[in-house]
Structure formats: structure tokens, C-alpha cells
Task: structure prediction
Amino acid sequence: MNIAILPGDGIGPEIVAEAVKVLKALGLRFEMETAPVGGAAYEAAGHPLPESTLRLARAADAILFGAVGDWKYDKLERALRPEQAILGLRKALGLFANFRPAICYEQLTHASSLKPELVAGLDILIVRELTGDIYFGQPRGRRSAPDGAFAGSEEAFDTMRYTRPEIERIARVAFDAARQRHKRVTSVDKANVLETFQFWKDVVSDVHKDYPDVQLEHMYVDNAAMQLVKEPKKFDVIVTGNMFGDILSDEASMLTGSIGMLPSASLNEKKQGLYEPSHGSAPDIAGKGVANPLATILSAAMMLRFSLNQPEAADRIEAAVKTVLAQGLRTPDIHSEGTTRVGTTQMGDAVVNALR
Ligand code: NAD
Result:
């Protein structure tokens, strides 16, 4: 099992070190090789995704990624900014399926901004299409408006588009995932207004014919945004396009209390995957030893399950995380009265001890 370790910037190296420690404690054989990415790679090699890092990532069974970015790179031209590394990896490896589970751990029910009864036991999975939609559609740009009430004025435009195979493959990913869960899929669209999403809805319905054991419902994105805060537990798997998924998955992440708890996985057709916490590089707390490493540790568990075919090891890590939370250990982002405040390294050590 070949893992590329890309720690990145800010808190990235601190939290990835804890996940690596946990992986090593499993007693399995991994080949791990580390390479710079993001701002760290720009400093070392003049590019956020150097050819050598991309080569390592391509050759690996899975990539464990920390986070990239820092305000000090904001003035760089777009192509050299750290965030381009993650977009470059998604594109180069064809990572079209993004999984973001939003699970509210029993011990953290009170950390959510919603009432505890609304989030207790919450366990939803957002499946976001990651390589299409308006984020990648061509043409795009700025020009003089060719028509309309403001013809001749300066305008900007993007293109929303999806092909049938792109929708079919993400729909299959969602239906397959639902089969391992509660067998319910909510497909989120804006079919009442957008041609692209009427097509999305039609194609998802077509694919559903192969999954008669899974229940499918269609929901408009504005309603889905509302239902996620009104009654989040009614969802099982949500599948949607790139832009709607971007927004809804961040909304869902906050239901669980802290972004420091949320893992994610991005997979391609070969099940090769990039695993990373849902949060960024948190430059405000970098180097202070207070970052929550649990999202990264849980991302490593997803890696074992989805790309490395080690579901028992994934279960062990997830159980160990529950144990440390039950022991009352908390990094500052999830700390509350009556619990024990710990730092990044102590949290990683506690997970390792719980594994044993
Ligand atoms: P962020 O997620 O880095 O931080 C938001 C807030 O959450 C901060 O207060 C931070 O301290 C806190 N936080 C985040 N992770 C935490 C953790 N593990 N433990 C405790 N607290 C945590 O988002 P931001 O501040 O908007 O962005 C910072 C940088 O990260 C930017 O350069 C941005 O572009 C980049 N970014 C990168 C990724 C990625 O690498 N995939 C994703 C999002 C943002």
C-alpha cells in the first residue's frame, strides 16, 4: 500500500504528522513518501504543484493531504497560488467524486449551533461531483455584452454544463454508497430554472432504474439548504453538482460542531483517492500546537476503507476517535466545560493509545 503524504502549509504538517502516527500504529505495512505541496512547494521549487509531487501522487494508491494556503501568497498570480495545487491534483487524477460525511458524535452534540435534539445521531453523506459544472465549464471570461438591456457594457460569464456520463458516474457512486447505508438518496438540483439541472434530474432518474432497492427523492437546492438546518436527520445520502455541493457540504459541516472534525475523500474511477480534512490551513493557529487533528485522522480511516481495502483498520481508527472523545479529551475548537483541553500531539497520542 503506497501512500503519498502531502502535508502542505499552515497546520497541514502538524495534523498530517498525527494521522501518520496513527497509521503506523495499526501494524500494517505501508510505503509512505512525503512531498511538498502548496506554499511549501512554491518556496522549495517555485510552483505549488511541482512535477515531482504530481508524479508521486499519480503513482500512489492514495494521497493523504493536509491543507494549503496562506495569506502571504495572496498577491501571487493565480496559477502560482497554493490553492492551485489542490485543483491541479483533482484535475490531473480525475478525482470526480467527493465524499463528505457529516457525523455528529454523541459527545459533541452541544458543540453544534443547532439544538442538540436536531443533530444528535446525525450521520449524512454528501456526494459532490468535483470536476464539472460551472467551475470548469467553457467558455468563460469577460467581454462586452453582446445583447440585452446593457449591450455593449463590460460583462463576465461562466458556463454551467454537464454531460450524461459525468452525471451517470456520480449518480452510481451515490447509489452504491446508499446501499451501504440507509438506502436513501436525495438528488439536489435546480431543475425548475436551469436546463443543466433538468438534465441532471433526468439522468439521475435513469440511473436509478438500476437501483430499485434505493429510494430516490429530488429536491431543489434552495429547499435542501433550508431542510439541512430544519431537519438534517431526514437525509441519508445527498448527491449534487460541483457548485451546489460546495455550498451544501460547508453548511452541513457546521451542523456537527467543528470543521476540525470533518474528513473528506475525493476518488477517481480507479478508486485512487485524495484524502484531506474539510478545513483549510488555518494560518491563525499554525505552529501553536492547538489544531484538531481528528479530521485528518478520520480522513486516513476513509483512505483505508475506500482506496486500500482495509475496512477493519478504518473501523478501528473510528472507534479509537470515539474512545478519546468519550474520555473527555478536547482540542480548543471543541472544548467545553467539564472536558480536558489537549493539544494536537496529545490528541494524536490518545488516538494511538485507544487503538492499542
Ligand atoms: P480554514 O478552514 O483554514 O480556517 C477557518 C477557521 O477554522 C479558522 O479560525 C481556523 O483556526 C479554524 N480551523 C480550521 N481547521 C481547524 C482545526 N483542524 N482545528 C482547529 N481549528 C481549525 O479557512 P480559512 O481561514 O478561510 O482559510 C485559510 C487558508 O486555507 C486560505 O489560504 C485558504 O485558501 C486555505 N484553504 C485550503 C483548503 C485546502 O487545502 N483544501 C480548503 C479551504 C481553505
Notes: The radius of gyration is 21 Å.
